[in-house]
């Protein structure tokens, strides 16, 4: 079976075709395209929902045509259309939902609504090294930070989540305080590479109490106070650059340690040693290294998608949609976008 995946939940337009290998093509991604709106939103220092929606309107259909051309396929060669139905920005979601359902109707194909976070959770399945069920998943991005026990597709138990800022959001906000360009998270991580260990020490929030919930707003506040105190007019430009790098190092170290402590706690609680990390922040090399150390000590392994599939993309939506389609999931044209959609409400496959 082959399925077209459409991702438009925020500021990236992702289109892909996935084949399960049961036809004349090998299993895997047949073709994919990703358009990022970073340049559109950079001047505003964050995503502007109305601009995001308009850009999805401009880019989605041309990207679908490009993917079909690259794959040398026509709509008649497809078995379904999957689209991100939530959670996300409602305007952006409506673009993908409308186009996905319209194409499915026009092509006489099943339409499959996909949960955005299920797409991220299953993104490591796009790789050669695939985790077996059950496992613990850390979903960490600009909009979400959560720990989930995964016993199968659709069999999700929420273990903990952020009570305020997500980890990626804290990265971006702290980067903005440091005067870094949008999106700031990856830039902050790069700056941290030249930072000095031990110069500053930030808290590891909510690690001194039981439970698996997260909180990053206080950590962001600590970073903001340090920036105000340490970066003064008396410093030379070179000194300012070094102080910023030291703060970036300490901030990243605190976030990584916090995530690692909670992941270790979750693995022990579930008596598992397989860990999946997905979402934009899962591309962070310091986080990957730390979690690899933890799972190795537990006799397990950490799994994650390649960097291009850590951020929002159409391939993960196509894969998740295909699993749902094979299980008989289909929807009529009345299905609406869901800007809020708890992951643990999904039906098992």
UniProtKB/TrEMBL annotation:
One GO CC term, this protein = cytoplasm
InterPro entries the record matches: ATPase_NBD, Gcp-like_dom, KAE1/TsaD, Peptidase_M22_CS, TsaD
Top-rank taxon of the source lineage equals Bacteria
Could you say which EC number(s) this protein's record lists? Answer: 2.3.1.234
Q: Where is the Gcp-like domain?
A: 29-319
Report residues binding substrate: 139-143, 172, 185, 284
Q: Name one GO molecular function term.
A: iron ion binding
Residues annotated to bind Fe cation: 116, 120, 312
Question: Which Gene3D superfamilies does the protein's record reference?
Answer: 3.30.420.40
- Pfam families in alphabetical order: TsaD
Where is this chain primarily localised?
cytoplasm
Which cellular compartments is it found in?
Cytoplasm
Described purpose of this protein according to its UniProt entry: Required for the formation of a threonylcarbamoyl group on adenosine at position 37 (t(6)A37) in tRNAs that read codons beginning with adenine. Is involved in the transfer of the threonylcarbamoyl moiety of threonylcarbamoyl-AMP (TC-AMP) to the N6 group of A37, together with TsaE and TsaB. TsaD likely plays a direct catalytic role in this reaction.
Instruction: Write down the PANTHER family for this protein, in alphabetical order.
Output: TRNA N6-ADENOSINE THREONYLCARBAMOYLTRANSFERASE, TRNA N6-ADENOSINE THREONYLCARBAMOYLTRANSFERASE, MITOCHONDRIAL
Regarding protein family, the annotation reads: Belongs to the KAE1 / TsaD family.
Q: What is this protein called?
A: tRNA N6-adenosine threonylcarbamoyltransferase
Q: Which organism is it from?
A: Colwellia chukchiensis
